[in-house]
UniProtKB/TrEMBL annotation:
GO terms for cellular component: cytoplasm. It is found in: Cytoplasm. The keyword Protein biosynthesis does not apply. Keywords: Cytoplasm, Hydrolase, Metal-binding, Zinc. SUPFAM superfamilies: Cytidine deaminase-like, RmlC-like cupins. This is CMP/dCMP deaminase, zinc-binding protein.
Length: 274
């Protein structure tokens, strides 16, 4: 008879939920003929998991307690205790806790979950920007900067699915060449101790100034809106162990192209090409 003690602690995983792997045939220590794996997941109040997808495996969420909104592809709906959601292979999905208590569910993968099968933070280019509320918040910051007469680049800092810092480029507004969007965001977040569980969002690939701050503070993941108008310092960040994800959003690209066309001298000043 195969009986296992699965009272194991939850750990934060790549998609930002707290997870305990209850059953995985490759980790049992004996030969078990089973295709699926089971995990116990927890999403705290107010937290949203990162968009992610499984390339080959399908997944089922069975909600044990709590309420939230389940997103699968371009569809979403409220979900709660006793309900089940099926996620086909390849579909981008995430879940947000909109209730007043932790959202707890079983996650069952078939075939069994493998790290190399999961892609975290990737959204198809055709998907609307609202698929990621944190990037939408960064875009709102960029638009705020534009309204103030500045350079339309915005940034937010996220920890545990919650925005803890916001900012936008204030070179013009503050008459300060150092206040790039990411720097403004980090300054507004204040002293937060360790950054190792944070994600920095920016509407544009960070320059070497901002990438230096990312590396200095050991921010492990950077998600950007686009890099077509400015390639930035991606290779520098990746060389220092930072995971960089480029959404390649047309909305962000058009915003920068319009600005560069209308104010080329200001843009060249900002990137040191005067």
């Amino acid at each position: 008879m195969d009986v296992y003690d699965v009272r194991i602690p939850h750990m934060r995983v790549a998609d930002n939920c707290l997870l305990a792997e209850l059953f995985h045939p490759l980790r049992i220590g004996k030969d078990i003929q089973c295709r699926y794996s089971i995990a116990h997941a927890q999403v705290p109040v107010g937290v949203t998991t990162l968009p992610h997808r499984l390339i080959r495996s399908s997944e089922v969420y069975y909600i044990l307690s709590g309420t939230g909104i389940m997103h699968i592809g371009d569809e979403h709906m409220e979900i709660g205790e006793g309900q089940l959601a099926y996620i086909p292979p390849g579909k981008v999905q995430w879940i947000e806790n909109t209730g007043t208590r932790d959202l707890i569910f079983l996650a069952i993968c078939d075939p069994l979950w493998r790290e190399e099968d999961e892609v975290v933070g990737e959204i198809p280019p055709t998907a609307p920007v609202l698929d990621d509320p944190f990037m939408e918040a960064a875009i709102q910051e960029a638009e705020k900067g534009k309204e103030e007469g500045g350079i339309p680049i915005g940034s937010v800092l996220v920890r545990d699915g919650v925005i803890i810092g916001r900012g936008h480029n204030r070179r013009v507004q503050n008459n300060d060449p150092m206040v790039h969007a990411e720097i403004d965001c980090l300054q507004n977040a204040g002293r937060i101790g360790s950054y190792q569980d944070c994600i920095l969002y920016s509407t544009l690939m960070p320059c070497f100034l901002c990438a230096g701050a990312v590396v200095q503070f050991h921010i492990p993941r950077v998600i950007v809106g686009e890099s077509r108008t400015f390639s930035g310092a991606r290779e520098f960040m990746e060389a220092h162990g930072v995971t960089v994800i480029d959404y390649d959003l047309n909305r962000c690209q058009m915003m920068m192209e319009t600005f560069i066309r209308e104010k080329p001298e200001l843009w060249n000043e900002d990137i040191g090409m005067v």
